[in-house]
Amino acid sequence: MAHMMADSSPTTGLKQRLAHPPTKVRSKFVRVLRAYPLVFVGGLMVLALIFVAVFADKLATFNPNFQFANGLAPDGAPLAPNHTFIMGTDDLGRDVYSRLLFGARVSLEVGVFASLISLFIGTTLGIISGYYGGFVDSVIMRITDIMLAFPFILFVVALVAVLSPSISNIFIAIGVLGWAVTARIVRAEVMKVKEFEYVQAARALGSRQWRILFKIILPNIMAPVIVLTTLAIGNNMLLESTLSYLGIGVQPPTASWGSMLSEGQQVFEYAPWLLYYPGLALMLAVLGFNLLGDGLRELFNPRRVR
Amino acid sequence: MSALLEVSGLTTSFLTASGYLPAIEDVNFAIEKGETLGIVGESGCGKSVTSLSIMQLLSSNGKIQKGSILFEGKQLVGLKDTSMRKIRGNDIAMIFQEPMTSLNPVHKIGKQIGESLRIHRGLNKEQSKQKAVDLLKLVGIPRAEDIADEYPHRLSGGMRQRVMIAIAMACDPKLLIADEPTTALDVTIQAQILDLMRKLKAEREMSIMLITHDLGVVAEMCDRVVVMYAGKVVEQGDVRDIFRKPTHPYTIGLLSSIPRLEDRQQRLSSIPGNVPSIEVMPAGCRFASRCPHATQRCADDEPSLLSVTDNHQARCWLVDEKGVAV
């Protein structure tokens, strides 16, 4: 009953009702959902993408690389969307729908793994740089400057060319070269956070260095890093498409959204669906990650969620 | 009785563009068991550097150049970091000026209080959580169980300072260093926090080193006072002696700049000028440029700490000349 009645006063003994009777406390999930509905839109889009990528072989209607004899019009033109090929066929008579599903796999794989590699390298270097400062900081930051000054695509193209194009080499190349922005942001955050009195207070409690770095500082800088990484997944998916579009990404006949766009471009005047579907898929995927990233920023901020 | 903490000849320097310059020089004082020592002085006089030197928490451009810090007879200067860590938070705890930023915003209150128990006492999560609730009750926080599960931003400044005290008290320290613990709080809360510190001190026979620029706080809390000016101790003695018979002109200036109820002055007196910066520290008495009694001797030679009475010293030539206060 303590919730309905304020405590009776020890001096007067009078019982008083509460001015604001407590209402039902909603679960955090519901509160977040109400405050930031777009997180869930973004989250659902990302979940849908993951679902499609994982179950591509179950969802696809045909073998994505099979060139159907009946997939081309008598004059050799691709077929528009119809009952058999629901998103039409490409200029080699392959099913666009099936290729799109398998392409999601490639795009997501590259996006996620490249971003994780960047996250790991960038966070490690950024923390070291920001916390220790001095000479170490100068060296790491000059390397970062070089990475940022160099045209990124060119760098990735060069590295992929050296490594030979394959899905794993693409995400390794993007990941290994793409940590500079993460490192900079982490460094700035660490430099800000390490001056707070709670870091000093942790030292005054006798915490070890690793404890201060990973238990005190790291959780305080993760919000922007997680947002950045989520956004980076979208960007890296785009980058994979760019590489495939340029012809040094995923090699034929493997489908990726970028290679589909690249191939479709040659015939898009009379087969525009070859651009619509992969383009739309790419746009939705990147949008999903962006919405999710923005929402996560709010979610990770303990001040925001009431 | 040997002192709990004995600081002698402590000189801590910081690397500047013109090499290492001392922020505090030849600082001597002792804290007995169960005693509260006030360290007073205006901003930049080296109060905080003194406390950070004791904790060995100076930033990387600072170092202790000379002197010794004995804690229970153990030399802290040059102690290995691993051994020093066992003392920090365990034997010597610290509370800070700014309660709004001294708590980590991403961890729950209970977890933060339990931290030092996990570090020093090896308690597990469950035990440290339970102890944290007890500590919250000890420092007078209502609904301790609920508050332990809250994040710091839900608490007011006074409550946070209570939490900071709870964190400091977790391992039953022998010495509590309080660096301006009430500066950021409003007056009624200040009184509550000071009461709490006094109560805990009495219950646990703990010594307190209270760093402050608020002489009111000193009068209320301290047994003895060290007055610092420009990195040096200029006067030290019993709190009564300091307030009744201030000897160093700087102490006199500080005391006369407090508003008093009895005599309604038109204006509060103030000490003209500023503390000289460490790059251009004058030889001779450091207070000479602001001192109403300064003579050529003050500008030429620096006085040492001269005895006014048995346990009352002042770093001023006036003591030498008159033997008593001006």
Describe this structure in words.
The complex is a heterodimer of chains A (306) and B (326). By secondary structure, chain A is an all-alpha fold. Helix content of chain A is 66%, strand content 0%. Chain A contains 12 helices and no strands. In chain A, helix 2 crosses helix 4, helix 4 (96-132) runs antiparallel to helix 10 and helix 6 (152-163) packs across helix 7 (167-177). Chain A is flat. The model of chain A has no long low-confidence stretch (mean pLDDT 81). Chain B has 326 residues and is of the alpha/beta class. Chain B has 12 helices and 12 strands. Chain B has helices spanning 47-55, 81-87, 109-121, 125-138, 144-148, 157-169, 187-204, 215-221, 239-244, 249-256, 296-300, 317-322; strands at 5-16, 19-31, 36-40, 62-71, 74-75, 92-95, 175-179, 207-212, 224-229, 232-238, 306-309, 312-314. In chain B, the strands form 2 sheets. Chain B has an 8-stranded mixed sheet, with helices on both faces. A 4-stranded antiparallel sheet of chain B has the order 2-1-4-5, covered by helices on one side. In chain B, helix 7 (187-204) links the parallel strand 7 (175-179) and strand 8 (207-212). In chain B, helix 3 (109-121) packs across helix 4 (125-138). The longest helix of chain B has 18 residues, at 187-204. Chain A binds chain B through residues 133-134, 196-198, 200-208, 211, 216, 219-220, 302-303, and chain B through 55, 57, 60, 84-90, 93-94, 96-98, 101-107, 115-116, 119-120, 151, 153, 164, 167.
